[in-house]
Amino acid sequence: MPERPELDYQRDLLSDAIPGTVIAAVHVHDPIVVRQMVRTDLSEALVGRRVTTIVRRAHFMIIGLEGPAPHLALAIHPMLAGRFQLCAASDRVPKDTCFAITLDDGRQLRYRDRKRMGKVYIHEQAKRASIPGLATVGVDVLGLEFTFERFAALAQKRRDQVKVFLMDKSALDAFGNAYADETLFAAGIHPKARVRELSSEQLRALHAAAVSVLQEASDTVRARKPPLHEKVRDFLKVRNRKGQPCPTCGTPIRVAGVRGHDAFFCAVCQPDRSGRGFVRWSR
Ligand SMILES: [Zn+2]
Question: For residue 49, how far is its CA from the centre of ligand 1 (angstroms)?
């Protein structure tokens, strides 16, 4: 799943590439990903509109369009396997291409999704809040407003497990599975720990790790410069590394289930301090 570091990088690539172009054609290869929130025919609604801005909010990429009122936009949520490709419109169309717009300069922006779980919302900008997941987006973790006081105030309201809290996009913008695991590892906190059971020292460590993990990942992705449709994740320390040695202590990385999500962690560096022994070590 592309998460914030990848999406921020892709937003920058797209921001350098497509604003100012005009949509010349719309292609729906698989309608299952399309959520049409405008009444008119899609081509009629979109063709002739000019791309203005590319914005990331939570795990959405939002492409603003200029044209006759009402102002429209595309909000794309890549979910597990979605990705973008920008290429010549004449390039072979891969099988996993679900949606595309041809631009007036001969290029095509494609949304590819082999799992077809992502969504492309074509919507009026004024009605964005009706898109599930965009009604309330939490505090920008890499913004100046993400102070420890703000984080502590959010944490104080939580009764859930810390990984669930980190992944709540209406609280924090934004963590998915991968960077939530990396943040908990950096903070030395067990993924099943309850937020209200964290010490103030742990809460401070978690706040600092949230910022440093996302910032370092963003810096790494930018430095590596992958193509738009590729994802660089080989630098992650625990995510998807079950059985491999912890980079800090050498203990094999384990996996635990947290509310339907897999959490990768090191049982030594991220000890379970609850005393409840709820970790199923066999996994
Ligand atoms: Zn360790």
Answer: 52
Question: What spacing in Å lies between the alpha carbon of 1 and ligand 1's midpoint?
Answer: 25
178-212 pLDDT per residue, tens = 999 999 999 999 999 999 999 999 999 999 999 99
CATH code assigned to 4-130: 3.20.190.10
The alpha carbon of 258 and the centre of ligand 1 are apart by a number of angstroms equal to: 19
Q: 4-130 with 139-237: one CATH topology?
A: no
Q: How far is the CA of 250 from the centre of ligand 1 (A)?
A: 6
Asked whether the predicted pLDDT for residue 283 surpasses 80, the reply is no
Residues 6+ apart with CB under 8 A from 225: none
Distance 9 CA to ligand 1 centre (A): 30
Q: Domain residues of the chain, as ranges?
A: 4-130, 139-237
Please write the tens of the pLDDT for every residue from 223-245: 999 999 998 999 999 999 999 99
Provide ipTM, 2 decimals. 1.00
pLDDT mean over 120-129: 97
Question: What letter represents residue 12's amino acid?
Answer: D
**Ligand 1 center to residue 270 CA distance, Å?**
7
Measure the CA–CA gap between 83 and 77, rounded to whole angstroms.
9
Give me the amino acid identity at 273: R
The CATH architecture that domain 139-237 belongs to is Orthogonal Bundle (1.10)
Bridge partners (DSSP) of residue 60 are: 57
CA of 186 to the centre of ligand 1 (A): 10
Three-state DSSP at 201 gives helix
Task: Supply the pLDDT for residue 282.
Answer: 42
